[in-house]
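Q: what does this look like with adenosine-5'-diphosphate bound?
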Amino acid sequence: MPAEGEGYDVVVVANRLAVDRDGTDKDGHPRWKRSPGGLVTALEPVMQSQEGAWVGWPGSPGDAEDAVSEPFDWGGMHLVPVSLSAEEVQGFYEGFSNGTLWPLYHDVIVAPEYHRQWWEDYVAVNERFAAAAAEVAAEGAVVWVQDYQLQLVPAMLRAARPDLSIGFFNHIPFPPYEIFAQLPWRRQVLEGLLGADLLGFQRPGDAQNFLRACRRSLQLVPRQQAVEVPAADGGRRRVTARAFPISIDAAAMDELARSPEVRERARQIRADLGDPDTVVLGVDRLDYTKGIGHRIKAFAELLDDGLLRADETILVQVATPSRERVEQYRLLREDIELQVGRVNGAHGTLGHQVVQYLHHSYGREEMAALFQVADVMLVTSLRDGMNLVAKEYVAARHDERGALVLSEFTGAADELGQALHVNPHDIDGLKSAVVQAVVMGPREQRRRMRSLRRRVFEHDVQRWARDFLAALRPDVGADVGAEAVEGGASGSGEHGSRS
Ligand code: ADP
Ligand code: G6P
């Protein structure tokens, strides 16, 4: 525990810091880029409006030459790095987190691998994160642990610091027991999570799956979305598991999309694409859960069938590089690039590629411009905790135009009822939805987009954080609410202040 009067009142612990190490500049200072993925997109505005610390891994091995180990401030946030060795990156991050848990929790779209050494690395790294959080949290602080990489942290932290209020949020689905039961360490994972006071999930079904796993594996009987577990003082402690659907900073995306620079950039992109009648867009991390292959297949068949014309339509697929050292991700990249090559070979002409495939990550301005260019946005995940891209598209469409095709297997589908819902495994159904989106008139686009925007703006990420923290600790939740009401989470201000 820090010395009396020291430490942070709110601590977020996530595998990723908001930024990822990107080499060193010519003066020898670390260079940073924003970390990929929805967790960082959601937490960044929340932490920019909070005085708190963010504990996480800076994205390169700690024994690398350019390792960063001292806390630093970035983008109005106080960041506390946790080092991983090259072996731990392999065993904990690429192995247990992304070779075991990620596929297991996403309905075994690819086969999870179970290796005892990976599990040992997972335990060791979770211990390090718990110790780092215990060191920076003030007496009686709120510690909010994030995501599947850190499921053991809540119990480890409670053992070290019983004074803390501990929350956990799972950004990805929690699988049905029949799938979860495969995990050789299922009891340890559940016991790790049960160290928290409050467990948040994306959908009510995820919370139910968790409670059911507690009943089946630990013989705990859930009552009113909670189970009781033994407490350190010999009494009982209540652990609640509920849905808190995550969201985006909708006002910030709206403001960005309205800026003259972004509008101009959107016009330029459309012109560079050859001013096609219809631009269809996909934006994802290059991940097998996203159904990118299904979407390209449907698009290609529509061209083959003559229902879309190659000279009038373009599919822009932006695929952020992700987890490139994990075998399944390498194979996926090869598959997708082969598929794109085939469609362009069959339907492209000199100077016109019908599928524009971009294996890069872009800045927020460019993303906002791309969303404005997209007449049709395709989100075809086979399983996705939430999918923030769908919400970003909606928030960027202040012109109330465009159509969103959305997989029913995303958390976002629960909220975005006016999107065109699809089962991405049903290629014919997906093709019909794409055609419906392409021919949709402006009146219908407006009607649907208004309702979608209402939902995304009313349930933004500030509200998500406020709801969660208020359920965990009403005094802290009220603070987040006050700041959101006063004008959003975009201010940076002085951060890193201590209690
Ligand atoms: P996941 O968390 O699984 O990656 P989400 O859709 O919830 O999926 O979040 C993805 C986040 O990453 C969004 O904020 C999206 O804008 C961002 N993103 C995805 N692809 C890119 C890209 N090529 N360049 C920049 N940002 C991207
Ligand atoms: C998803 C996960 C996050 C993760 C992100 C990017 O959003 O829920 O925990 O950070 O993907 O993946 P990466 O492996 O690059 O951190």
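Residues 16, 36-39, 147, 171-172, 322-323 surround 6-O-phosphono-alpha-D-glucopyranose (ligand 2) (CB under 6 Å). The CA atoms of residues 2 and 223 lie 37 Å apart.
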